[in-house]
Specification:
Layout: E1 4-8, H1 13-20, H2 32-41, E2 45-51, E3 54-66, E4 69-77, H3 84-100, E5 103-108, H4 115-123
Parallel strand pairs: 4-5
Antiparallel strand pairs: 1-2, 2-3, 3-4
Length: 137
Protein backbone atom coordinates (compact mmCIF):
# COMPACT_ATOMS: atom_id res chain seq x y z
CA UNK A 1 0.00 0.00 0.00
CA UNK A 2 1.35 3.44 -0.96
CA UNK A 3 2.35 5.93 1.70
CA UNK A 4 0.22 8.91 2.54
CA UNK A 5 1.60 12.41 2.08
CA UNK A 6 0.42 15.81 3.31
CA UNK A 7 0.51 18.89 1.09
CA UNK A 8 -0.38 22.30 2.44
CA UNK A 9 -3.57 23.46 0.76
CA UNK A 10 -5.83 26.47 0.44
CA UNK A 11 -9.36 26.72 1.78
CA UNK A 12 -11.96 25.72 -0.82
CA UNK A 13 -15.72 25.15 -0.84
CA UNK A 14 -15.10 21.40 -1.21
CA UNK A 15 -12.85 21.42 1.85
CA UNK A 16 -15.46 23.39 3.81
CA UNK A 17 -18.24 20.95 2.95
CA UNK A 18 -16.21 17.86 3.78
CA UNK A 19 -14.68 19.30 6.96
CA UNK A 20 -18.08 20.59 8.13
CA UNK A 21 -19.41 17.04 7.97
CA UNK A 22 -16.95 16.12 10.73
CA UNK A 23 -18.17 18.79 13.14
CA UNK A 24 -20.79 17.80 15.70
CA UNK A 25 -24.02 19.51 14.61
CA UNK A 26 -25.20 19.49 18.24
CA UNK A 27 -22.18 21.54 19.35
CA UNK A 28 -22.81 25.24 18.73
CA UNK A 29 -19.44 26.25 20.21
CA UNK A 30 -17.40 25.63 17.06
CA UNK A 31 -18.40 26.19 13.44
CA UNK A 32 -16.91 25.65 10.03
CA UNK A 33 -16.65 29.43 9.68
CA UNK A 34 -14.40 29.54 12.76
CA UNK A 35 -12.23 26.76 11.32
CA UNK A 36 -12.02 28.62 8.01
CA UNK A 37 -11.00 31.83 9.80
CA UNK A 38 -8.26 30.00 11.72
CA UNK A 39 -6.88 28.48 8.50
CA UNK A 40 -7.03 31.78 6.62
CA UNK A 41 -5.33 33.61 9.51
CA UNK A 42 -2.60 30.96 9.66
CA UNK A 43 -3.26 29.79 13.24
CA UNK A 44 -4.31 26.38 11.86
CA UNK A 45 -3.01 24.67 8.73
CA UNK A 46 -5.06 22.89 6.09
CA UNK A 47 -3.39 19.94 4.39
CA UNK A 48 -4.54 17.94 1.42
CA UNK A 49 -4.03 14.23 2.03
CA UNK A 50 -2.83 12.01 -0.82
CA UNK A 51 -2.07 8.34 -1.12
CA UNK A 52 0.30 8.31 -4.07
CA UNK A 53 -1.50 10.52 -6.58
CA UNK A 54 -4.98 9.73 -5.19
CA UNK A 55 -6.57 12.60 -3.26
CA UNK A 56 -8.14 11.35 0.01
CA UNK A 57 -9.38 14.55 1.66
CA UNK A 58 -8.20 17.18 4.10
CA UNK A 59 -6.77 17.43 7.60
CA UNK A 60 -6.44 20.55 9.75
CA UNK A 61 -3.58 20.81 12.25
CA UNK A 62 -2.16 23.36 14.67
CA UNK A 63 0.37 23.41 17.50
CA UNK A 64 -0.14 24.36 21.12
CA UNK A 65 2.13 24.72 24.15
CA UNK A 66 1.70 21.78 26.50
CA UNK A 67 3.65 20.66 29.56
CA UNK A 68 6.67 22.80 28.80
CA UNK A 69 6.77 21.62 25.18
CA UNK A 70 4.69 21.59 22.03
CA UNK A 71 1.77 19.43 21.02
CA UNK A 72 0.31 18.93 17.55
CA UNK A 73 -3.48 19.01 17.46
CA UNK A 74 -5.46 17.17 14.81
CA UNK A 75 -8.30 19.66 14.64
CA UNK A 76 -10.35 18.11 11.86
CA UNK A 77 -9.62 15.16 9.64
CA UNK A 78 -12.01 14.76 6.74
CA UNK A 79 -9.62 12.24 5.22
CA UNK A 80 -9.49 9.89 8.16
CA UNK A 81 -12.93 9.39 9.63
CA UNK A 82 -14.23 6.36 7.76
CA UNK A 83 -11.36 3.93 7.25
CA UNK A 84 -9.06 2.52 9.94
CA UNK A 85 -6.36 1.73 7.39
CA UNK A 86 -6.40 5.29 6.05
CA UNK A 87 -6.30 6.72 9.59
CA UNK A 88 -3.26 4.56 10.31
CA UNK A 89 -1.52 5.74 7.13
CA UNK A 90 -2.43 9.40 7.70
CA UNK A 91 -1.14 9.31 11.26
CA UNK A 92 2.07 7.67 9.99
CA UNK A 93 2.52 10.85 7.90
CA UNK A 94 1.43 13.23 10.68
CA UNK A 95 3.75 11.85 13.39
CA UNK A 96 7.06 12.69 11.63
CA UNK A 97 5.65 16.12 10.78
CA UNK A 98 4.86 16.65 14.48
CA UNK A 99 8.41 15.67 15.44
CA UNK A 100 9.78 18.06 12.79
CA UNK A 101 7.80 20.87 14.46
CA UNK A 102 9.33 19.96 17.83
CA UNK A 103 6.15 18.40 19.24
CA UNK A 104 6.32 15.73 21.93
CA UNK A 105 2.71 14.58 21.54
CA UNK A 106 -0.36 14.65 19.32
CA UNK A 107 -3.86 15.39 20.54
CA UNK A 108 -7.29 15.30 18.98
CA UNK A 109 -10.74 16.19 20.26
CA UNK A 110 -13.55 13.90 19.15
CA UNK A 111 -17.25 14.53 19.64
CA UNK A 112 -18.92 12.06 21.98
CA UNK A 113 -21.21 11.10 19.09
CA UNK A 114 -18.16 9.78 17.18
CA UNK A 115 -17.17 6.96 19.52
CA UNK A 116 -16.11 4.76 16.61
CA UNK A 117 -13.53 7.35 15.55
CA UNK A 118 -12.25 7.58 19.14
CA UNK A 119 -11.83 3.81 19.16
CA UNK A 120 -9.79 4.01 15.93
CA UNK A 121 -7.44 6.57 17.46
CA UNK A 122 -7.06 4.46 20.61
CA UNK A 123 -6.02 1.51 18.45
CA UNK A 124 -3.15 3.72 17.25
CA UNK A 125 -1.91 4.41 20.79
CA UNK A 126 -3.96 7.47 21.73
CA UNK A 127 -5.38 7.44 25.25
CA UNK A 128 -8.10 9.28 27.13
CA UNK A 129 -6.51 12.46 28.46
CA UNK A 130 -9.36 14.65 29.66
CA UNK A 131 -13.08 14.91 30.02
CA UNK A 132 -14.78 18.04 28.73
CA UNK A 133 -18.07 18.98 30.29
CA UNK A 134 -20.44 21.56 28.91
CA UNK A 135 -23.62 23.11 30.28
CA UNK A 136 -25.94 25.31 28.23
CA UNK A 137 -27.15 28.39 30.09
Amino acid sequence: MEKVSLRQGAWTNDAAIRLASNLDPKDPTYSILELQREVEQGTSWLYEVYQGSAFLGWIVLFTDDYGGGRELIVQNGAAVVRDQNILKLVMAAVEPYARQLGCQSIRTHIAKSKSGLARKFKELGFRDAEIVLRKSI
